[in-house]
Amino acid sequence: MKIFKTKTELTTYLNTFDSEKSVGFTPTMGALHSGHLQLIESSKRECDISICSIFVNPTQFNNSGDLEKYPNTLKADLRKLKKVNCDIVYTPFIDDLYAKGEKAKEFNFGSLAASMEGEYRPGHFNGMATIVEKFFNIINPTKAFFGQKDLQQLQIVKALVKQMQSDIEIIGIPTIREGSGLAKSSRNSLLSANAKTEALLISKCLNFCTENKNLGISELQKYIKSAFEKSRNLELEYAEFVSLNQMKEIKEWEAENQSAVCIAAYIYGVRLIDNIIL
Length: 278
Ligand code: AMP
Hints:
Blueprint: E1 2-4, H1 7-14, E2 23-28, H2 34-46, E3 49-54, H3 64-69, H4 74-83, E4 88-90, H5 117-120, H6 124-139, E5 143-147, H7 151-163, E6 169-173, H8 193-211, H9 217-230, E7 234-243, E8 259-267, E9 270-277
The structure holds adenosine monophosphate.
């Protein structure tokens, strides 16, 4: 496994390969878990060369406390990537990607970025798209792998490649969960065992929606709100029912469109998100 700290080393190495070879790219912020590894394994299956980046991108954090708290486990991450036979890891320092004082670029993703993460984390998607566009321009992968865990991000990245007029194929990978149902997240490492048990309410509410779709959206919304009100340490930020293709709020199921329920909640100051496609 090759590890590069600069884009120059990375691209020089990539240029030694036959241009016919397919390149799979998985961007991550590290603190890797089996959800991330699932993306790399898909890349390994589908592409000749698999690259994983580990970079905690400052421009996508609207809250500096969240950025400072973000777990850093590089040594363990590299061991995990070696185990799944990742070919290349790119772990740049910030100045390899951003000029001094550079801010996020302004994108227009319309309704895709207006609600949920776009509403509660202002600037988040501009920061995310800024770094993903930079990575895509450096690596020019054949396919790039993203988790459905960050559903809105996945839909925005699909829109980004269209805006870039790029033919990079964006592959969405279903959410990997712990046996309990809790979605795997780097942030779970900040939670005690008890907090993780309490956080199960999120996936339980999502499953309730799948199993009781016939109740209709407003009843399901009431159910989720009241379940969170009863919980002691979980604070619901949003529970939104949206159309999958536009990430726009829906009040009723749409026969012609798939829908998703997306939840964001805080537990002991740790922000968790999860969703389910219905
Ligand atoms: P992050 O390091 O949190 O930025 O995540 C890097 C990539 O891994 C993103 O595309 C995430 O959607 C994906 N990912 C994170 N958690 C999971 C999970 N539990 N299952 C599948 N993919 C995930």
